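Workshop exercise sheet. Pairs work together: one partner reads the sequence aloud, the other fills in the structure field after running the prediction. Swap roles for the next sheet.
Pair: D.N. / O.F.
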Amino acid sequence: MCKIYALDVGLLGAMAKIDPPAMIQGDRVFKEFEGALVENFVAIQLRATRDMELHYRQSAGTAEVNFVCEYGTRILPLEVKAGVNPKSKSLQSFDKKFSPPVLVRTTLLNLKKEGRLINIPLYALARFPGIC
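Structure field:
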């Protein structure tokens, strides 16, 4: 199975016939579209700033890590969250199976490290994976 991303989040919004005010009114874009626009934004950033190949992992249809990134000799899972909900069941599932050196999540929360889990705010995504 593959995922397809648009080259521009604005074009994606137009293709989805999203009302333009919804894109700029508070946090509607994060709540109403269940992360699709945010995930697309992250894909654009990873390709534009790091020229990364985009991979994802889905396990038995229950847990999906949005991006699995190769950085040097390390594999870094990156979970994208649209908002401030820090729960990452997919990362926990990935961790149980593969035990990567670092687990990475991007949200609207500030930069924070808790053990092996690093939260990178969306605005600082261009620093990934060097920040890990």
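Discussion prompt: The chain has five helices and seven strands. What would you look at next?
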